[in-house]
Design goal:
The chain is an alpha/beta fold. The protein has 7 helices and 6 strands. Helices cover 57% and strands 11% of the residues. α1 crosses α4, α2 packs antiparallel against α6 and α5 runs antiparallel to α6.
Length: 200
């Protein structure tokens, strides 16, 4: 990119809890002048939990699988309730609870085998990155960083091999420029989830 951004990548242990999110926010704020683009993983243990619940649902235990994720949705809620102000908190609480309901619905589809299991698994596992990136963007704004969540599925494009997709480099570069460059030009900090993408 002509704007020469600084890519800041944070893995799952970097966003393990509220204290970890606070440390990431301080680090990003420190480098705000370097045009950072923040890429963040799901909170630690969330991806494994999502994969396990898909397997459980595939064995016919959709309700139990959904219940097994309760502690992880609570971890996201705890970060939001610890670090966000009362005026911004309800939006994030609604997003987290909406994600909980949507994952439960998708797990019922897994149990009913209404779609390709690999496709459903990809969709479910993506919630880890989607939630952590949205939450981190909100925490950054609380720390006076002009952060904007960007859905990585609008940037990274792959072939249709669910479960082992290969990124399409030229289309990914074009879409990423379209999504990210205007934010950098406006002085905003894009925050994206890593690991997730969409087909063309």
């Amino acid at each position: 990119m002509a704007l020469n951004p600084t890519i800041m990548k944070f893995g799952g242990t970097s966003v393990a809890d509220a204290d970890a999110f606070r440390r990431v926010a301080a680090l990003v704020r420190k480098h705000e002048g370097a045009r950072p683009v923040v890429v963040v993983s799901a909170m630690c243990r969330v991806t494994d939990a999502l994969l396990a619940c898909v397997q459980s649902a595939a064995e016919g235990n959709a309700e139990e699988a959904a219940r097994s994720l309760a502690e992880h949705f609570e971890r996201h809620l705890n970060v939001a309730r610890t670090l966000l102000q009362p005026d911004t908190l309800p939006v994030l609480e609604g997003l987290i609870e909406g994600s909980r309901a949507e994952v439960a619905r998708l797990l019922c589809e897994v149990a009913g085998e209404t779609q390709s299991l690999a496709q459903l698994q990809d969709e479910i596992v993506a919630y880890g990155e989607r939630l952590s990136a949205t939450l981190l963007a909100a925490v950054l704004r609380e720390h006076k960083v002009a952060a904007r969540y960007v859905d990585a599925r609008r940037c990274v494009v792959t072939d249709g091999e669910h479960g082992r997709a290969t990124p399409l480099k030229d289309e990914t570069e074009r879409r990423t420029r379209e999504e990210v460059e205007p934010l950098l030009e406006a002085g905003e900090v894009p925050v994206l989830g890593g690991f997730i993408a969409s087909t063309g």
